[in-house]
Every structure is written in C-alpha cells, then in structure tokens.
C-alpha cells in the first residue's frame, strides 16, 4: 500500500481525535486521510484526548444523548455536533436476552445475549463504521464516498452518501448475492462489479487511490480506514451500557478483516480506563467460516502469521482471504483467553435457523458463522453455561436468502377450504 | 363473520384496557377473543381507563421507559410488566428529517419527515401490532399464533411466536414474493400457501376460526383484531413525541385494510385528550395503489361505501380488495380535511428510488405508494410546503426487490485494473 502525503491538521475538527498513531511503532502524525505509518508501514489508528470528569458524569451525559452511536460522540473521532448533520444515525440496536437459545445450547437462563445489528438503517453493522468515515470524508473535503465491499458495506456507503448528498462509487465482486447488489445500487450511486474476489477488489481500490482518478475520493476502508474502523468501538460501548455498565465474560465476534474484533477490544479497554465499567477479565472469541478461515487456522496451528487463502464459503460477507487485522485478532484472542474457531456451511445454515426458531432473529450468513461457533464453544466447554456471553449478529438474513432458500419454504399449499387444510395434516 | 362466544373477563389483565366497545353502537362487552358486536355486528375496539395525573408526569414516565412501544404501555392493552416478557420489543423507530427529499419535492426545509418503520425487528410496522396481539393471546391462553397475511404480517407472527415459545401457523397467498415467504418460514412455524388472493385467505381464516380445528388459535387479525389493531396507535405516539410532543400538520399513511390509518387517528385524539399535545387541526391522507384503490375510488366519487375490487398491483402488502376499515378511512380523511389518493406501479417504483436517492431509505412497495402519493399531493397543492408533514414508510425494500430489480443493478462490470475502469467511463 502506498503512503499518501499527510494532510495538514489545520482546521480539522474530529472531536476528541488528537492524532493518528501507528499501532506498531507509535509514531504520531496529524489527522488526515492516511492509513499507513510513514516510518514502518504499520497501520495507523486514532489517538484520543479522552474526556475528563467522573465516570458518573460521563454516564449521565451518554444516557441523555441520542438513541444512536452519537450518544458516544465524546469517545469517537467526530465533531461534537455530529448528530445534527444529515447521516443515518445508526446504532443503539437491541441487546436481546436469549433464554430460548440458551436452553437449546445448554447455557444457563439469563446468561446469553444476542446483539442484533440487523436493526441498523441498512441492516448491518457497517452503518456504524460508515457513519464515522462519512464525518472524516466531510472534514477532509472529499466529494465521492467509495469502498471495496463484500456487499453490506456497499449498501451502507450508498445509503449514507445519498443522505449526505455526496456522490458514491462502490466496488464489489461481480458475483455477489442479488439482494446486496440491488441494495447497493438503489441509492443512486455508481456500483462497479469487479471480475475477481474481494481481495482483487481491494487491491484495485489501493491502485485507484494512488492514481489521479482517485483524487477527492474517500474510500471508507482504505484512506479513511483509521476513522472508519473506530465505528466498531460503539458495539463495545452499547453492549456494556445495555448490560448496566458491565463487561460480559465472553464475546463472540465474526472475523472478516478482523477490524471489528480488534476495535471492540479497544472500546472495552477505553471503558475500563474511563472507569465506566469495573475492570475484570473477559474473553474474546473470533468466528470464521471453514471455507475462509485463515485466522482460525493460524490460531489452531499456534502461528503468529496469517497465511492468505482463496475463499469458498456461503458467508460471503466474511470472505476476506487476506485479513488485514488477522495478527491482532490472534493477539487479542490469545491474550484474553479466548479462541478463533470455524464452522462449515451446513453448520452456518443450521445456526441461522436455530437462532430464528428460538429468538425470532433472522441472521445473515455471517451471523450463522458466529452462532455456529458459539454452539461449538459451548459444546466443547470453552464457554461456560454460568458465564455471561454476548454473540453479535452483524447482518440480516434477508440479504442472504440463498443460504436458507433450499430448505425453507411453505409447509403446504392448499385450496381455500377446510377439507384441503385437513388433508395437509396441519390441523 | 361469525360472532364467537364471549370469554369471561375474570383474571384478564391487559393494563388500562377496560372492555371492548362497538365502534358502531357503543355496546360494551368484557375483554375476550371477540371482534364483532353481538348487537349490530359492528367492529369491536378496545376501551380504556386512561391514566390519571398531569401531562408532564405522563411525559416523564414515557421518557424514562424502554426504547420500544412499551414506553407507551399505560396507553395500550398490555399488562404493566410487558417489557419483561419475551417479545420482539418493536417500535421507537427513526423519525428522519428529510431535507433532501423536501428539496426534490418543493417542500420547505425542516418541514418533511419520514417515519421509517423498516427499523423494526422484522422490518415492517407489523411487529407493532403483533406484539400487542401476542399479549392478548397469552392472556386468553392461546397456544397457536396465526394470521392471514400479504407477507409482512406472516414474518412478524412467525418471529414473535418463536421468541415467545408459541406454535405459529400462518396463511398467505401462494404467489407472494420469495423473500416474504422465506422470512415467514425461517422462524420454524408452519406456513400455508393458499391458492387465491389475500381476500380468499382472509375468508378461509374466518371459516377456520369457527371450526373446532381453530380452538386455541389466536388469529392476530381476526379474533385478536381489536387488540392487534391498537398497536398502530404507537405510530401516532412516537411521531408526536419525536416532534417534541407536537401534532404534525399532515400525515400520509398507506391504506390496506385501513386499520393503521384509523388507529393512528385514534392515537392522536388520545394524546390531545390527555393533554400530551396541544389541540390543533391536522390532516390525514390515505395512500393506495391504483391497482387496488377501492377506498381512493370511493373518496373521489364521494361515496360512503367501499366497493370491493380484485387487486392487481406490485404493492402486494396493500393488496386488500375488500378493506374492513375502508368506511372509517373515508370518514377520517374527510373530517380532517385530508384525502385518499392513489398512484400507479411506475410511480411506486419512481418514489422508492427517489426516497433511496435523497435520504438513504430503501422502502418496500407500500412505502413507494405512500411517497408517490406524497409527491402527488405536494404537486397539486393539497399539501403546503410550509406545513409539517410526516409520511410513513411501513416496510423494507429488501422484501420487494422484484419491484426495483429490472431497473437497478451495477453501473458497470470491469476487470480489476485502471484501464478497464477508465473504459467504463466512470473516472
């Protein structure tokens, strides 16, 4: 990846964001549309001047804030007046106490929760990260919002740009699910199918950003990535606030690039540092599909390096063969005493149906991966029935109907009379 | 429709619900699973002992309540502890200030709002009504939750029953959109396709309910209809609360059975009576698809009686040819100075795309009908640019992809290199 010229920090108001800092060597640079350290090529992330004041004051301020991620604006790289600007106001989705799923899996009642991010405006967690990237794009004066995407991100970028009045141009693998393609295109921006995998799309975007064509373009997950990625912290904030400002014992998080898991861990550590939750051990588990499990494989083999793979799974939103944050996922799951685990496509479909049948939540394939891994972890004892566990459903089953379509349909088709109903054997 | 034996009111705790009262003759009966007046066959609705106390006390209580329809539990036929029971906790969806759509339509900035009910758990307003029906089903000891449905209701019933641990068996026209069929079936209940229209499905359910097979069955929109319908009042409550406890000047509401429009009017009148909003005139407009516009036709012809039609429209969730509450819709729209209007299928698709392009909201065809009618009303001056107008998006575009699929897709498909991108003419 090419290192871009560092933009001047003058006049950039992104709230508590103070600078960008290299995750590897700690080198700091002013806020700008850059993503790789000029010293060591490590990834840059946002460094904050976190708010002063007592934990209770901050809790009260959050509780009085909007019913969206903007209640946590003092902890995010966004201006203080962000809620007043046209954006999709994502977040503050339901945390569901899942007692029927718990009973099915053998977890004690009251201990299992589903964080259901299908309730976001475009029905995936991507609305969170895009909302933050949009603010950065505005701050840096970009006029086109772009991304490489496995589908959900394309829809989230298209919708956010439409609402904000920016042009959008998104890049997707040409063979995505129809629902995701239409959802990306319906907002009126340009949608470009790329003949290749997501990793090919990603490489193309890196090329585009170094070319004069890409001037004025904010790629949410490339040159805006340091800001974008911070959006996932809000999942950590919401889960803890919704648990009554407590840390869960276990978190199960799907792993595509690994960014979400990494930033949720960052968010939890911030809450501890600010005194918003009591410090105690927690375990973070990563979930992958067997057909694209480079991080899970590295975890199981005891490696620190993640070897890229060519994805082959129905969980297309997790089909990133060369995950940028893979090494950090290994580090976090090992440090917290968690793990990275994977399930096959059949287990993905079974888990989607189990969650729907027990809790009325229809997850997309990525959710199937997460809940399939949850089942595996409970069965083999790595998650204890007596601990508090939160699993994240990051997307919506309506976007991946193909996964369940072959085994889901009407029980019977009848004529509109009682005899026909009796014949169907359902009375 | 057959009148059922009245259940005893003993031990039925549905909060402030005091009795059922006939909308036509005022005859009162105890709370029970009945829907038609034994005196005059008019529709029964819930009569309340509304809460005492000052408006400010009630506002404070609501503000301190959950982020769902249960914040309004003191105004609904549900027990006081309803939020603690397993249900989908729908509602409190986003009210979006739609300045870009307003600019497109010629409405003054700050005056147009979208109430986006696609944010509900199964992505339609039906989660509201089903949540209320579920409480009634529990109160009356029903073990199967059922309905006749054009799709959205089937999904909402399936999901709610799954979460509550009840059996579900829903009835739909056999030719529904695939997304809606799968969404109904994935929750593990029975889904029965009926060879006929929605009106045929509805007639079949009325027959079933009078048969011994139907014992123990709660049909959300038949024998639980008086309770179920009350769920739509929450749209009125939320809109007014989200506007800072003010009535809008105009409301645009889609008309299928007409129940939603009727109950929103009831909710607004309750808020005035309780002093939660200042009393002032408001206009209610009903929206239908040209291919199923019995109420709009009656409105335009100056009739009080609605003549049934055979539906032929892409807006299948509004395709009720014999709308039960049609006469009340005529009454309310005329009394408030509103109107009932309709748009054709092309206008429906255009409106879906306009809303997506300007506000990042992807509506289903019913939403397209509503926003198409909004456009018509603004263009012909029946809605003034200087008045506050709220239009309701009742469902999600992901469930009616077929409507936009022919005209929505990738702008281009390219090879992963800059030359190929330049050739596509998008640089």
UniProtKB/TrEMBL annotation, chains A, B:
Keywords: Lyase, Pyridoxal phosphate
Statement: the UniProt record of this protein carries the keyword Cell wall biogenesis/degradation: no
Statement: the UniProt record of this protein carries the keyword Lyase: yes
Top-rank lineage group of the source organism: Bacteria
Sequence positions bearing N6-(pyridoxal phosphate)lysine: 126
The Tryptophan synthase beta chain-like PALP domain, residue ranges: 90-395
GO annotation (BP), single: L-threonine catabolic process
Named cofactor requirement(s): pyridoxal 5'-phosphate
Entries under Pfam families matching the protein: PALP (PF00291)
Enzyme class: lyase
A GO term, aspect molecular function: threonine synthase activity
InterPro entries: Ser/Thr_Dehydratase, Thr_synthase-like, TrpB-like_PALP, TrpB-like_PALP_sf
The enzyme's E.C. designation: 4.2.3.1
Protein family membership: Belongs to the threonine synthase family.
Record's protein name: Threonine synthase
Taxonomic source organism: Streptomyces coryli
